[in-house]
């Protein structure tokens, strides 16, 4: 987990061991209640066309505002939720919220992150199918973001689960592409629709020419395989111009928009009427 923590500036795991244990205890004790007490929220970060002009999708990102300790980063509480068996509950909550909100954002995809632990649950496929159906969401607009960790331990199981969900129309993105050790193999074996280039590549692009070459080849590879290529963590105009020039399809990052509340996405998509009401029919 060192890698992920290293990229998270506000990670509790960086402020000393006692703090770490304290936070772990808070998470273990309070997360279950947090879900029922409405402390858990979902924000959405738009994904834009390469020129940064058109919203093509959003990614749902979970947020926890603890009544005493304030905002806790998902990078900190998701690992604990995984260990304490709370991730199915949390994952289902986020998926349901994302479907409920995303339903009115016609024509754009709604991506939901899936934890490896959640994905490996026996009833994962049926649970996802049920939630999407209950929320009356178009399955083809639901994109599940998986990381390589999902695919490593039980490749056959993962393949089957993906196939079943694909048959229902759901789509798949390979998240944090390039941070694992055998991404290429996974691309060949598993039926992804999209790859998301990890933001660590963009970060280092400024300093090393090698990273730019890597990003370039990933975009080419993705395009050659007929996949949509999204770059995440785009923070500068230079990065956006480069990505657009090399044929990257989609960009996501603070340069365009931070993760925001569902109501802000309504505004962004022009769904808010003059009286402030959200119009649900228009695209
Ligand atoms: P991820 O899926 O790779 O999500 C992208 C993360 O990068 C988000 O952090 C987002 O806020 C951040 N980000 C987006 N654009 C930029 C940028 O331009 N610069 C920088 N520095 N960061 C940017 P967040 O929301 O803290 O989430 C961290 C990770 O926690 C996610 O990485 C994902 O792995 C996990 N996560 C978040 N929500 C969920 C969830 O509902 N379920 C599961 N299983 N995991 C989640
Ligand atoms: Mg993601
Ligand atoms: Mg990612
Ligand atoms: Mg990540």
UniProtKB/TrEMBL annotation:
Residues 24-273 form the EAL domain. It comes from the Bacteria. This is Bifunctional diguanylate cyclase/phosphodiesterase.
